Amino acid sequence: MSETAAEAARPTTPQNAFRGVLGRLNLSTWAGIAIVVLLVLAAIFAPYLATHPPAKQSIMDQLAPPGGGYLLGADQFGRDIWSRLLFGARYSLAIGLFAILTALVIGSLIGMTAGYRGGRTDILLMQVMDVILAFPSLILGLALVALMGATMTNIVIAIAFTATPAFARIARAAVIAQRDREYVQACRAMGFSGGRILFRHILPAILPEVMVMTSLWMATAVRTEASLAFIGLGLAPPTPTWGGMVREGFENILSSFHLALFPSLAILILVLAFNLIGDGLRDAIDPRLKDAS
Amino acid sequence: MVGKNTSDKPVLSVSGLTIAFGSTTVVHDLSFGIAAGETLAVVGESGSGKSVTSLAIMGLLPERIGRASGSVKLGDRDLLTLDESEMRSVRGGQISMIFQEPMTSLNPVQRIGDQIGEAIRIHRGLKGAELREAVLEMLRKVRIPDPEERIDNYPHTFSGGMRQRVMIAMALACNPALIIADEPTTALDVTVQAQTLALLKELQRETGTAILFITHDMGVVAEIADHVLVMRRGRAIEQGTVHEVFSNPRDAYTRSLIAAAPSLVGKLADGTIPARGVEGVPLSFRGDAPVLEVRDLSVRFPSRGGLFGRLKGEVHAVEQVSFAIGKGETLGLVGESGSGKSTIGKAIIDLAPRHSGEITVAGRRIDYADPRSLASLRRDVQMIFQDPFGSLDTRQSIGSAIIEPMQVHGIASGKEARAKMEWLLERVGLDPARATSLPHEFSGGQRQRICIARALAMSPKLIIADEAVSALDVAIKAQIIDLMIDLQKEFEVSYLFISHDMAAVERICDRVAVMYFGEIVEIGARDDVIGRPGHGYTQRLLSAIPITHPDQRSARPPQRVDATPPRSPMKPVGYRPPPQSWEMMAEGHFIRRAS
């Protein structure tokens, strides 16, 4: 058994395996991570970084251009765009995060149950998921928010609702791939309960795939939230949301394009960052998928 | 030097072949030759460099990383100096290859006629009706029944053995000077293996092709080889004619390989033993009371089809099987793939549905609908699986894998469980200090030790070992079997040892049951069943097992090339099998009477 002596010299713990994934991340993934970290910091320290209160109007400074007293200019009510962007980041990030975490937990549970149980349970659960998936997420989110009213909780619920099937699908596929492996059979042979097998043995195996999905759907959630705000179904004014700022800036796009430009850029950068992270994670976790898409 | 007793020039002569991957040398200074019409067997365990050598001869080493130096002469040409386009004409034309896995080495979306025809078209330039006739001739040569019809079939309609014959036809299609056969029979059942080897030998006699035969099985070597080259860790450690190597092995490793072959088989006793009919089913066992008693176990899988999933029929995987195992006793369950032997093990521990039957463990009848009865079954009966790489959770440390079942069943927890785990690791020959390591840090044999420790953690009465040593190299296999025998004495545990490997069965089992199409056809003490088989199938199975010494070649009966399609296990719904009747050959040795 000499061949294992060399292997034993460098034991691999889960922490090491995680470090291995981090080591395989490419430059653009790190750029994505850096952007998200910066934006989260900006959102947390918004009160310190802002130069003006975000809702403070100033008749004198309506549509002021960038530079001067206002870093990125002022909007049609004379509110500082820089400060509003900083506070807006809080809503974009919070809604995206809570919506996707909710979808992650519920969707994964549904998918794991469907995949592990199989048969009728599987068919029933996944048919429901497919029906939800058949609607474009923006239309479905729009209908839900219009129905329930545009509060923070309702927007989170609406976006979570649209993202749940995606997590259910990926969790189900991953569980099915594991379910018939011999180690799962061994667990069943030793009399472990279904819950124990699912959560202690199968869940860690499917986690990487779910993580990739999470960051990719964060991007979609941010976009959906901005789109809802743009068509007027976001948080009510004067709450500064990026989508809402784009809409307000749109009215003066010909005279003062900076009103719409800066929040649009903010949305673009955040969505791009989440996509970069998702793609990079996927490549690092499973190099075989690199050229798949 | 190989080839010294053949006067003619070798077809292939390799000298000083050294192969390196990057900075690691995997094959050191290898030299051998093969003459026309001769078979050289290259023997070694996984990682010994035997397959890499064949890839180097074919010029198929991975580009950029693999480098070969020395010389590989086919006739007068040194293959190592040829460029890729020249090599292409050599491959398939002068050298062809037969691979291990007949299920994956054929293209599933091409008719077999087209696949054989492609090589002939490229290398011999035949077309149209001429090409078709040439393909038909090849199919006849490899004894494919109804070749006119089968030529237009797809690979999935062929059995494993038939596919390997198609592969052989492809390899022979262009009259190659050399065929490289890389473990061509390893994936086949033993009876099919015997037929395939017989066919290869016969075709070699007709065509005079040289064969480089790569294998890990000394039995196959004894059957087919003229010369033998034993490899270990990239070096040739022994070389000579097959008689020299088997009669006077010089190297200790070669001796251990030869010793691993089954020894009872092939020494069949002469004469017929009078048999008498017996009442009921044979439930004999050793000792006072059986640990496991299986009565009339049947397993059927529904086969549905059509638009509404109508029940078309049932696959009778296991049919009215009865047997018993005594305390500290090992019953071997042997049979070929698809005979239902694994399904029996799974049905006992509720991993497969039981259609009917009664299972009693330690005197208690198991009620599978009762959670308490099921829980006690799961304590008393443990299972060891075939794949030591698949049956452990890759993310769980081995210590925790052994402790978890103890906690789940409330046998031990905390410090007590830890102590028991460490003690068990020591018992199976592993260092308890490595309890925090993950499974991938262990070799295949070590992992199987971990699985054994995990099974023993429950202090079971019975361990079902489902092909538990089949995936291991010969030397490791012997160690694990010895460990299982030692532990059996210490823990007084019984084994149900499911395997197709007769050498392993012979070594560990007290009694043997032979399975054929879901039924036990013969059961009895090991020496009786293996030494004096009574049932026709057992006799056929045993005669197909490779011989242990080349001197026995003339003594064994000729292998018929069997063309009959296998029996279908699919039966119409409500099918009732005919009642069984048994004959007793000797005390505790029963055979099924033909119905």
UniProtKB/TrEMBL annotation, chain A:
Domain ABC transmembrane type-1: 89-278
Membrane spanning stretches: 27-50, 91-116, 128-149, 155-177, 198-219, 257-278
Membrane topology: Multi-pass membrane protein
InterPro entries named in the record: BP-dependent_transpt_permease, MetI-like, MetI-like_sf, OppC_N
Keyword Transmembrane on entry: yes
Keywords for this protein: Cell membrane, Membrane, Peptide transport, Protein transport, Transmembrane, Transmembrane helix, Transport
Main location class: membrane
Location of this chain's protein in the cell: Cell membrane
Keyword Membrane listed: yes
Family (UniProt): Belongs to the binding-protein-dependent transport system permease family.
Name this polypeptide is given: Peptide/nickel transport system permease protein
Upper lineage: Bacteria, Pseudomonadati, Pseudomonadota, Alphaproteobacteria, Hyphomicrobiales
Automatic annotation (TrEMBL), chain B:
CDD domains for this protein: ABC_NikE_OppD_transporters
Keywords associated with the record: ATP-binding, Cell inner membrane, Cell membrane, Hydrolase, Membrane, Nucleotide-binding, Repeat, Translocase, Transport
Pfam families: ABC_tran (PF00005), oligo_HPY (PF08352)
Gene3D superfamilies: P-loop containing nucleotide triphosphate hydrolases (3.40.50.300)
Chain intervals for the UniProt region annotation (Disordered): 548-581
Annotated InterPro entries: AAA+_ATPase, ABC_transp_ATP-bind, ABC_transporter-like_ATP-bd, ABC_transporter-like_CS, Oligopep_ABC_C, P-loop_NTPase
Catalytic class of the enzyme: translocase
Catalytic activity: glutathione(out) + ATP + H2O = glutathione(in) + ADP + phosphate + H(+)
Gene Ontology MF annotations: ATP binding
Keyword flag Glycoprotein: no
Keyword Nucleus attached: no
Membrane topology field: Peripheral membrane protein
EC assignment: 7.4.2.10
Location in the cell: Cell inner membrane
Protein origin, superkingdom: Bacteria
Signal peptide: none
Domain spans labelled ABC transporter: 12-258, 292-542
Function of the molecule: Part of the ABC transporter complex GsiABCD involved in glutathione import. Responsible for energy coupling to the transport system.
Known partners and oligomeric status: The complex is composed of two ATP-binding proteins (GsiA), two transmembrane proteins (GsiC and GsiD) and a solute-binding protein (GsiB).
Family: Belongs to the ABC transporter superfamily. Glutathione importer (TC 3.A.1.5.11) family.
Protein name: Glutathione import ATP-binding protein GsiA
Organism: Bosea robiniae
Taxonomic lineage of the native organism: Bacteria, Pseudomonadati, Pseudomonadota, Alphaproteobacteria, Hyphomicrobiales
